[in-house]
Amino acid sequence: MTSLMTPVTRREVLGLYRKIFRIAKKWQSVSGQMEDTIKEKQYIINEAKTLFQKNKNLTDPEVIHQCIEECKARVEIGLHYNIPYPRPIHLPPMGLAQKHGRTFQKQEKLRKLSKPVYLKSYDEIS
User: Fold this and answer.
1) Would you say residue 44 lies in a domain?
2) What are 75-97's pLDDT values in tens digits?
3) What is the pTM for the complete model shown?
């Protein structure tokens, strides 16, 4: 965390980090299989460490707020559906547009706008 982060924001981020590790500690796989539970717990821990480490030097308050909202959304969705992995989404297809030109740029923009908040950083780490 940088010194540019307000104490309230810092407290919120650290609270989310701790919450994720508490969730991982209590996590039970839907299948009830111990190996699935262990694998899912490890995924939760690794995902949290990776994303928090990646974002630890952010200074823009708006970007920090977006990351906090993404984290909250992923936690709530994971708890609701009882799956730690990001929910699949259906993005508009890229169609037959060539890799350059206005049509491709429009499709790229549409895909970016269509991505839900809980998946904003997913492509960047996978």
Assistant:
1) yes
2) 998 999 899 987 766 555 555 55
3) 0.71
CA atoms within 13 A on the CB side of 95: 12
Comparing 41-45, 48-52, 77-81, 118-122, which segment has the lowest mean pLDDT? 118-122
Condensed to tens digits (0 to 9), the pLDDT of residues 90-124 reads: 555 555 556 666 777 776 776 666 666 666 676 55
Question: Where in the sequence is the domain holding 88, given as residue range(s)?
Answer: 10-119
Cβ–Cβ < 8 Å for 84, 43: yes
User: Is residue 93 in some structural domain?
Assistant: yes
Q: Are 23 and 75 in contact (CB under 8 A)?
A: yes
Number of domains the chain is built from: 1
Q: Is 124 within the bounds of a domain?
A: no
- Residue 73: inside a domain: yes
What's the rounded Cα separation, in Å, for the pair 103 and 101? Answer: 6
